[in-house]
Amino acid sequence: MTKTLLIVENNVSIDKINEILSQNVDIKIIALDYKAHTNLVKYNLKHFFADSYLSPDDKKEIDNLAINKTLFWHQNFSELLTFYHICLPKLIEMELIQFFTRLYLDIFSLIRTIQQENPSKIISHTHLDDFISRICKTRKTEFFTIPFSLSYGLLLDRINIKFNLVRFPISFSIKRKNFQKMKKVFESILNFFEDDLVKSPNKEYMLLLDFNVKIYRNLLTELAKQKKNILLLNQRRPAIWNFDSFKIIKRNNCKVVSLNKFETKLTKNLTDEKLIQLSENLTKIWQNERILNLIFSIDSISFWNSIKSSFIKICDSRFKESIVRIILLNELMSKIKINTILEWAETGQEEKEVLFVSKKYKIKSVMLQHARMPTAEMWKPFGQFLSYFSHPLLSDYQAVWGNFTKDYAITNGHKEKNILITGSPRHDDFFNFSKTIRNKGIILFATTGPAGVASETSTISSYLEYEKFVRKVCTISKNFPDKKLIVKPHPHSENFVNTIELIKSIDPKIPIMINADLPQLISSADVVITFTNSTIAIESLILGKPTISLQIEKWAEEEEISKMGAVLSISNIDEIENNLRNLLYDKQFASEIQNNAKKFLDHYMANGGNASKMLAKEIDRLF
Hints:
Elements: E1 4-8, H1 14-23, E2 27-31, H2 34-42, E3 48-49, H3 56-72, E4 82-83, E5 86-87, H4 93-117, E6 121-125, H5 129-139, E7 142-145, E8 158-165, E9 168-175, H6 176-191, E10 204-209, H7 217-225, E11 230-233, H8 243-251, E12 255-256, H9 265-286, H10 289-295, E13 297-298, E14 301-302, H11 304-335, E15 337-343, H12 349-360, E16 364-368, H13 383-386, E17 397-400, H14 403-411, E18 419-421, H15 428-432, E19 442-447, H16 460-476, E20 484-489, H17 499-506, H18 518-523, E21 525-531, H19 535-542, E22 547-550, H20 560-563, E23 568-570, H21 576-585, H22 587-604, H23 611-622
Parallel strand pairs: 1-2, 1-6, 2-3, 6-7, 10-11, 10-15, 11-12, 15-16, 16-17, 17-18, 19-20, 19-21, 21-22, 22-23
Antiparallel strand pairs: 4-5, 8-9, 13-14
Helix pairs in contact: 3-4, 7-23, 9-11, 11-12, 16-17
């Protein structure tokens, strides 16, 4: 039995910790999350992980509860949260699943820690202090709190921006609201130069949602050849952000549309009316404390007070966003004739809004497979939040990379007639890239962090495993003096572990390439190293590069790319150096891996180099 537990989350000052340590004997420090762990390491304080007290069965229950709460928390209030026949909570499920996974992971970790340590006193600095105090009351345990003021939101409440300034990597985050204000100003400038789309009411358009025109420039060209009038609606990132993107849009005669352009006095009045109604409905919901305490409880102990402030803020801000956009989308679709919608991330809030509204106007939609989709058993329950094929999708048709994805979709109940095997338009440039570029002695390290969706991939240990593997690769690369390590961070890897800062702390001289030309960068590498079979592994295989996948999560070894030996799978950290040496210097060994890669690609990717043309033909046939 431990006399006192000090449970900390995020950052807490060393002065406060030292004060507590000086006043308590037989004290054990518990880190609730990864940030608390890194903070305690900085102070050289011995501590334990709260989630290390969890059993495998606990993690399964956490996942089940997180999924259930994401889907059904609002079922008692659905009528109050439905506008234009759209249930607003359904629009943010992709982000809510991570919110609830993190929440239940913390709750179960706390319960199990307290059960197993059986302390006589608990001192807490967490967002769940009220919940802990309720546990302590039932156990007759002393409880003290260090006030915790951090508000918890959704994954995309902060927008991560990365770029290279000359050779220096820059990474920072800004608030979602501030990003939207900046984007609105930028789009208003662009709108000044745009044609008035409403003046051509009989012209039919294909609407593309949040496309990176540089990555999909071949597709835009092929659609233009089919005489398609392309309308770009980019709500999360500007359609035009540099001169290259501007040239691509102009060359293919694409139109860029902003929802703000459809704001009129009439829509403004309607929006104000609906926002007032939403506020009144939310007030009714939040006043229903009895039901909320029942919904957000475990073992008859409520955690509603612990999440109340954060959850109300999430619902208030995101639902208001949706109502504004839904009204403007109705205006857009009633004024402009749209015959097809093309999208690649249909579980995002903005995409869901568009697709739900489009059903009213009987507009057909096509979803493009945009990345390698995990098919391991553990991902099936989460497929409905990530637009994988383990569950039904909102889109009418799905354009997939090859037979493997099609077969997987059909196995999970999708209709064969709705699945189009087109290949990957975004990878045409990879297939057509010159293979004659000489290797430049580069070890390319593409860092893709932990998935952070299921509980198993969201623990402190999972983040530390990733960190440990990153450190190992950076360290052993020095044992290859004829090679140069270059790091290409994943666009979203800062969400859980700040990879850029981690690399800088290991060796500030390691080049970090954020906005590199990927085909060029991969082609110049002797070998590519990545994590858990990420999409960049596919890109490496297309360009004929021997590829290592560091399998820091068990599910990754169940994937077809691993079982076929297309990548060299390494789960034991001590085997990295020897395997890397074999790939670099043993030609026969590397040749075997590359032969496996070719067989895998033949099975996985159709129409290599011609996917854009194939997709354009399919769209022309269907619409």
